[in-house]
Amino acid sequence: MADIMFAGIGGQGVLTAAKILIEIAAEHGKNVSWTSEYSAEMRGGIALCRVVVSDEEIGSPYPDYLDVLCCMNEDAYDKYVSDMREGGCVIINRSVFGEKQFPKNVKVYGVDAMEIALELENQRGLNLVVLGAMIRATGMMDVNEFADTLEAYFNKKGKASDKNVQCFMMGYEKAEKMQ
């Protein structure tokens, strides 16, 4: 079981990243739950999603501690890193982070999500880059199966684009363990 949080601000694709993860995990036979919180602003307000992915029945969608924290911005990291479980994994969007001292009890992976999304001419793909980094950092699912299902997800939505899977794969390939 993995207790996961995606956190950032509105407009960064926080809710979409979580929704993609639960849909793909469910298609691969996992039990999933999702809860979200966001402020009234359409863009720029706080946005977060709690996701639980498990092989077993899920008792509560509100874990006491997180196994995985995906931070789209530095404020999200500052606010939620204290909720991490010992040995958990934090993924940061290095594009918007300053110098940080990371806690010793967690693994930290960084990816230059904004730069990758812009390089691939898919600014809205920032969340997919972070999702790719999360799959690399956690090994939660096979990367190729995830990428194939991601492509099918966007095809089903009528938003097929090679750039979506490219963002995901670049996030996977470029994620670096920082601690």
Mean pLDDT figure:
92
Low-confidence stretches: none
> What name is given to the CATH topology?
Pyruvate-ferredoxin Oxidoreductase, domain 3
The CATH homologous superfamily name equals Pyruvate-ferredoxin oxidoreductase, PFOR, domain III
Number of strands: 7
Tell me the β content.
25-35%
Total individual domains: 1
- Major sheet strand order: 2-3-1-4-5-6-7
Question: Mind describing the biggest β-sheet?
Answer: 7 strands, mixed
Spatial extent as radius of gyration = 15 Å
Describe the structure.
The chain contains six helices and seven strands; from the N terminus they run βαβββαββααααβ. Helix 3 (113-119) packs across helix 4. It has a seven-stranded mixed beta sheet with strand order 2-3-1-4-5-6-7, with helices on both faces. Strand 2 (31-38) and strand 3 form a beta hairpin. The chain has 179 residues and is of the alpha/beta class. The chain is 38% helix and 27% strand. The model has no long low-confidence stretch (mean pLDDT 92). The protein has helices at residues 14-27, 74-80, 113-119, 126-138, 143-156, 162-174, and strands at residues 2-9, 31-38, 46-54, 66-71, 84-93, 107-111, 176-177.
What's the gist of this structure?
This protein is of the alpha/beta class and 179 residues long. 38% of the residues lie in helices and 27% in strands.
Describe how the helices and strands are arranged.
Blueprint: E1 2-9, H1 14-27, E2 31-38, E3 46-54, E4 66-71, H2 74-80, E5 84-93, E6 107-111, H3 113-119, H4 126-138, H5 143-156, H6 162-174, E7 176-177
Parallel strand pairs: 1-4, 4-5, 5-6
Antiparallel strand pairs: 1-3, 2-3, 6-7
Helix pairs in contact: 1-4, 1-5, 3-4, 4-6, 5-6
